[in-house]
Amino acid sequence: MKAQLLLGYQFSLLSAKRAKIFNEAYSTNEPEVIECKKSRNPMDVDRKSASSDEEKSYDSTISQSGDMSWQKATFVLLSETIAIGVLSMPSACHRIGVVPAVITIVFLGVLAWRTGIVIGSFSKHHPQVRNFADAGAVMSTLLYRVFAALLMLKGFFRMASHISAGISAFTFFSNNTVCSTIFGIVIVIIGFLLSIPRKFKHTSFVSLIGFICIVISCFLTLIGVAIERPQYGEVTWKAFNNPGLNDTVGAITDIIYGYSAHGSFFTFISEMKGRSRDFKKSLTIVQTISISFYVVIGAGVYIIVGDQNVLSPALLIPHFKIAAAAYVIALPCIIISAVIQVLVTGKFVVTNCIDPTYLDSKTWKASWIWYTVVFGIWSISFIISELVPFFNDLLSLTSSIEAVCLSYYATSILWFYDNQGRMFVNRWKITMFLVAVISVALGAVITPLGMATSIMSIANGFKDGQFGLPFACKS
């Protein structure tokens, strides 16, 4: 017990020390390029005798450019952004109506693009930043801890939602003949093996495969429901609906989830050749594809099947054979997107809690540390997925907490920090100021309402017997 307390205390000191170093060394708003020096194990630092220069050299190892091209970064971004989020778009159209849903999809997509550009700009001004926690450390110790907590929450909850979706896919096309928990274990094993490479450039090809798979799967669903349209009889769909608070907030958070990859952006940028310049190019392509894809699948599927037949995830809507085929094709995307998230979370853990040199080291020790961290992330996420065995409510709860905070609150804070004293110098700055204010206002409304409605929905679901017990073997 004493050893555990001591270890926890040491990590707490490390977090506080790291944030303090960033805050003191990089408090200026002007871009500063730091010479890259080899880091050492943070636990070997003598906290009492280490000089200020030694402390600065410990955390200033990140300004050198990465080696991932913008094309590969685009593939990774596509896999991270367009995944299971698209599967709830028809349900969002059903909840609030086609016209409000399409307007919301386009508006939030453009807003996500602008807030993503803010992250690229902040990375340009502070090239030492490798993740969102580092960005918080530039500003204050408190923000370092808050962003670190949100980053971990994002990692584990996103992983849980992907594992849950994967289990649903396996269970569906197996026709409930095998225990669902077994499928979860299979997903963890496959995902762990795919997570062994530590660089995003090594996962860019499988990321492209994952993106192609989800596109094929969704269009197969769209074509399938169009072919089966006569079987649905008379269907009704609404251009404008009259939703209650729960449906409105649920639809908005589902759409937000589809654009909420911001927590991973700093990590992607740190491995890119052109960094913020090329990131803007990749992000623009990804957001254009995302907005178009979400509108076509969301509105298209909903209009064809109507209010009576819409389901979430949307792959469940067609006949069993088509739905099973769509799920099989979508599985690579579900797993690969989870792998990208594991890499982001694992890099944060190794960089900020252990030793950043282990990310590039080829020693056995570095490899086993990476394997242990990655396997731990997969295991914890699997436990969460079994404890929270539902889809829409998990998306809503996740979006209302980490997605809103990292995509809207945090990016606004970054912009305000980088533009102190010059927020109104020209029309562009004024426009970006308004974007930041809108982002904060949106987050202030969605976060508490989203959490409340999700928790109420979960409670009602368990009360009505809609969900099974944790780790229950459904076969």
How would you describe what is shown here?
With 475 residues, the protein is an all-alpha fold. The protein has a single domain, classed as Up-down Bundle (Sodium/glucose cotransporter), CATH 1.20.1730. Helices cover 71% and strands 0% of the residues. Helix 1 (2-25) crosses helix 7 (141-173) and helix 5 (98-125) crosses helix 15 (392-418).
Layout of strands and helices, then pairs:
Elements: H1 2-25, H2 52-59, H3 70-81, H4 89-96, H5 98-125, H6 132-139, H7 141-173, H8 180-194, H9 204-227, H10 245-257, H11 265-270, H12 275-309, H13 320-354, H14 364-387, H15 392-418, H16 427-463
Question: What features would you highlight for this structure?
Answer:
475 residues; 16 helices; mainly alpha; 71% helix; 0% strand; Sodium/glucose cotransporter
Biggest pleated sheet: none
> Into how many domains do the coordinates divide?
1
Low-confidence stretches: 1-14, 25-64
What is the number of beta strands? 0
Structural category is: mainly alpha
Count every helix, treating DSSP H or I runs of 4 or more residues as helices: 16
Any idea what the radius of gyration is?
Answer: 22 Å
